[in-house]
UniProtKB/TrEMBL annotation:
It comes from the Bacteria. Residues 10-121 form the SnoaL-like domain. Pfam families: SnoaL_2. It comes from Paenibacillus silvae. This is Nuclear transport factor 2 family protein. SUPFAM superfamilies: NTF2-like.
Length: 127
């Protein structure tokens, strides 16, 4: 039952993420949610609590005109889920790394989710 609830929360979160519905993303988060984005082994974004998460989510939403995370697989271990993800987004702004607005970003990665009190309390994105 726990796995089913966690899977439902992940699906709700990703549906909201893919449609830029920040309130929908927040709805499934625990008040003390911890978020980390890890790229090539380096933590490049991190939040603690809903307000910090909301601020980062609002900032990130401005970078893309379209974005989509697609679940390839989910594996449950103890109280966590490891989700293999395909990600694609279209930039709406130029980035410092030289990528330009209108360019497509495609990544494969994984996300780790953990649930507490029937809300997501941990999200770690790896790419």
């Amino acid at each position: 039952m726990e796995n089913s609830k966690l899977k439902d929360l992940i699906e709700q979160y990703l549906k909201a993420y893919n449609t830029f519905n920040i309130d929908g993303m927040i709805d499934v988060l625990h008040e003390s949610v911890h978020f980390k984005n890890i790229t090539n082994g380096n933590v490049d974004a991190q939040t603690q609590g809903i307000e910090e998460f909301r601020a980062l989510a609002e900032q990130s939403a401005q970078i893309f005109s379209q974005r989509c995370q697609v679940v390839k697989s989910i594996a449950f271990t103890d109280d966590k889920a490891e989700v293999e993800i395909d990600y694609e987004g279209i930039l709406s702004v130029d980035l410092p790394n030289g990528m330009k607005a209108g360019e497509s970003v495609k990544l494969q990665g994984k996300s780790i989710y953990q649930m507490k009190e029937e809300k997501l309390v941990l999200i770690e994105d790896y790419s």
